[in-house]
Amino acid sequence: MTNDPESAVTVRKGDRYRGMGCEVEVTRVGANWADLKVTQYRGAAWTKRQPLPFPDDWQRLTRGDGEGESLESADFTVHPGVTWRQIIKDSGRSQMEVAEAMGTSAKHLSQIVNGASLPGLDTVVSFSETMGVSPEMMWRLVCGYRLDLVLGKNDLTEDYL
Predict the structure, then answer these.
(1) Domain limits for position 134
(2) Rg of the chain's alpha carbons, rounded to an integer?
(3) CATH code assigned at 129
(4) Which residues sit opposite 17 in a β-bridge?
(5) 89 with 145, same domain?
(6) Beta bridge partner(s), residue 36
(7) How many domains does the chain have?
(8) Do 10 and 86 belong to one domain?
(9) What is the pLDDT along the chain (161 residues), one digit of tens a residue?
(10) What is the spatial distance between Cα 92 and Cα 25, in angstroms, rounded to a whole number?
């Protein structure tokens, strides 16, 4: 993936990548964008439109790469706030609007999406209801992150903020 048009990689529907600490599948391709299904290794999934070319640190998976291999076996972890940030961005709403709808302070939501604070169960449920996502999935992200830290996995949160 490079900005040099001479060496640009062709992106097609069905192509798979590892990027953003997630598995990424191309679902549709335009002239200078691709629609993606992004799946985090703890089960969270969302769609997004990504400009082309993809970032240089995305690893293209070839047929057979990752088959039978789960991202759960990854030796890294990412704060759930990274996922929350993307969900908010994809919704087109501001953090302020989301915090207000959740009944929490904008400061608290900012601390979560910036990886400075982990949300409690009530905040997870409120976020899930506000954003229309599964509270079980969001809670799994929080618990999985905490467990990964205890297990000594490398925290790559800073790379995604």
Answers:
(1) 76-160
(2) 16
(3) 1.10.260.40
(4) 24, 60
(5) yes
(6) 26, 48
(7) 2
(8) no
(9) 444 444 456 888 888 888 777 888 899 998 889 999 888 776 778 888 888 888 888 888 875 544 444 455 567 889 999 999 989 998 999 999 999 999 999 999 999 999 999 999 999 999 999 999 989 989 999 999 999 899 898 888 888 77
(10) 22
**Structure tokens belonging to residue 135:** 């509270």
Helix then strand count (H, E) for the chain reads 5, 7
Written as six digits, the tokens of 139 are: 């809670």
- Is 0.85 topped by the overall pTM? no
- On whether residue 103 sits in a domain, the answer given is yes
149 with 117, same domain?
A: yes
**Residue 37 belongs to some domain of the structure:** yes
| pLDDT for 47 | 85
Count the Cβ atoms, other than its own, within 10 Å of residue 35: 15
- Domain presence at residue 95: yes
d(C-alpha 53, C-alpha 147), whole Å: 34
Cα separation, 106 vs 13, whole angstroms? 38
**Residue 108: both structure tokens together:** 């608290």
